[in-house]
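Appendix C reproduces, verbatim, an entry submitted by the partner laboratory led by Prof. M.T., so that reviewers can inspect both the input and the predicted structure.
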Amino acid sequence: MIPSYSDHAANERTFLAWIRTGIAIIAFGFVMEKFNLFLVAVAATASPQIAARVERLAGPFGRYDGLALMIVGILLIVVSTVRFLRTERRIADQAIYTSGSGRAEVVLAAVLALLAGAFCIYIVVA
């Protein structure tokens, strides 16, 4: 029997949940990037009135929103991998550790909240 098996299994389940979340954020960023390309193609073939509205929607912010989400997803995967490996070492060490401050989670949550708010504002304004 593996010592502290339930702790190791819980750590792995948490790691896999973070990986799934990171992949979902990357996929959403990819979809947004492809949708922006679609908007640019529509603007090129549409009437001048429709093209002006579509170009505002696919403006400078629209060019980087998908890329920003892809980068955030990659950072989420990197941070979760580091935390997984650190927790694995701590479980195997059997020493008593105090819990972390959770600063990384707060920063990532704040970045995602700011991006989501910026996207909402941009959609309403455009």
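Residues 5-125 form one domain. Additional entries are available on request from the coordinating office.
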